[in-house]
Structure formats: C-alpha cells, structure tokens
Amino acid sequence: MFVSNITIENWVDNKDEGDFIENPSWQEIETAILELNGKSKTLVTLGADEETYMSIGGGEEGKYIVNVTFDNISFYNLVSFSKSEQIETLIVGGQAGDYPAKMCVDLQTVLLAAKTFVESGKLEKSVTWEEEKTFVTL
Fold it and tell me: What is the pLDDT of residue 93?
C-alpha cells in the first residue's frame, strides 16, 4: 500500500481530538472518509511522506473536496465540470471556507479517487483533476 498513515480530525468545541494511524488498512481509511460529516469530522489526510498526501474534507450534505500533492508545491483538485459556477460553503479542517461548486464532489467519486491513491500513489484516471493555480508576486 502506498499510504503509510492517516490523520483524522475530530473537532470537540475548538480543539482537534483526532487520531493518527500508521499503516492503516483500506477499511480504516474508508471508515474515516465515511465518518466525515462537515461538523465535528471535517478532514482526513492520507499521507505517504512529508510531501505526498491526499486531503479529503467536508462531508456535510454529501459534498466533499479532495486535493493531492506529490511535492507540497503543486496541488491537484478533484473537480466536476458539470457543476455550476456558484460557490459552496464547506467546513474543512474545522473552519468554514468557500469553494467553487465544481470542487464539491460526491462520496462515490471520493472513494474511487482515494482507493487509487492509497493503492498506487497515483491520480485516478477516470475522474477529472485540475492543477491549482498559484500566483507569485516578486
């Protein structure tokens, strides 16, 4: 398995009382993703090393965001271009944030992308990924 650890956030009041599991099984990973509720459990991070990880956040009303980095510099967001241009508010990492609707994907898509990343360390080819644009001011 490519992933070596999982971080599961669990917010109680303003404190994260989550778990860190080394060498998780797919069942532990899937359970953590299924428990995302957009309230107390808002972020799961699947780590391979310090620079390579997949973050899965949200969960309320079946809306999730997923991003992946292999170098902690370039990030890839899982997207659905069939969505409108409106903005959705999701709680990720214990904080509310505004995300383009195209970044809010369903659970089935999340599980497919996560399973591929967990097993091979690659981006699932049957879904759409968009490289995040960053701007640097010199």
Answer: 93
- Of 39, 102, 40, residue with least CA distance to 67: 102
Handedness of CA 38, 112, 131, 1 (dihedral sign): positive
Q: Please report whether residue 137 resides in a domain.
A: no
pLDDT tens digits, one per residue of 33-89: 999 999 999 999 999 998 999 999 999 999 999 999 999 999 999 999 887 789 999
Is the residue at 12 inside a domain? yes
Q: How many domains does the chain have?
A: 1
Distance CA 72, CA 85 (A): 27
What is the pTM for the complete model shown?
0.93
Q: In this structure, is residue 54 part of a structural domain?
A: yes
Interval 92-114 mean pLDDT: 96
- Site of tokens 């999340």: 110
Q: Structural domain of residue 24, as residue ranges?
A: 5-131
Up-side HSE of residue 45: CA atoms within 13 Å toward CB?
16
Residue 45 lies inside a defined structural domain of this protein? yes
10 Å CB burial of residue 69 (0-12, 13-18, 19+) is middle
Total residues belonging to the chain: 138
